[in-house]
């Protein structure tokens, strides 16, 4: 029931994000509490690529660890595509995909730090932009 409610929240957030220019951040974000292993349990996107390929996709495992400079390193491992590494700084980070040349502005929208994290990504590339929402548990 809790996961279904969060999934509906994620879809509602995706619709709201599509209507505005910026992705909200968790208020009073405490990045040290986000450290650990997370599993993707939900994903929604308005991208044409996602709509065409979603039946082939597998969820990722994400490990968030503290760095010496006070930021967080985010390593997501996808069964088909390998690892993607980015950095979190105060609830948001930017990742550039070298394979596709797309820029990902990623924000932690909401989390209780031990059960779920709702993460929204604004993806920009030469062919257009899209939004993706991930639910971690």
How would you sum up this structure, described in words?
With 137 residues, the chain is of the alpha+beta class. It has one domain: Beta Barrel (Lipocalin). It has helices at 2-18, 48-53; strands at 36-45, 61-66, 72-78, 82-88, 92-97, 102-111, 117-125, 128-136. Strands 4-3-2-1-8-7-6-5 form an eight-stranded antiparallel sheet, covered by helices on one side. Strand 6 and strand 7 (117-125) form a beta hairpin. It is globular and about 35 Å long. The two termini are 14 Å apart.
Low-confidence stretches: none
Number of discrete domains: 1
Radius of gyration: 14 Å
- Gross morphology: globular
Mean pLDDT: 77
For the record, what is the CATH homologous superfamily label? Calycin beta-barrel core domain
Q: In which order are the strands of the major sheet placed?
A: 4-3-2-1-8-7-6-5
CATH topology: Lipocalin
SSE string, helix = H, strand = E? HEHEEEEEEE
Report the helical percentage.
Answer: 10-25%
What is the CATH class designation?
Mainly Beta
Terminal CA distance reads 14 Å
Helix run count? 2
Number of strands: 8
SS-based class: alpha+beta
**What composes the largest sheet?**
8 strands, antiparallel
Fraction in beta strands: over 45%
CATH architect. name:
Beta Barrel
Catalytic activity: prostaglandin H2 = prostaglandin D2
EC number: 5.3.99.2
Subunit structure: Monomer.
Enzyme class: isomerase
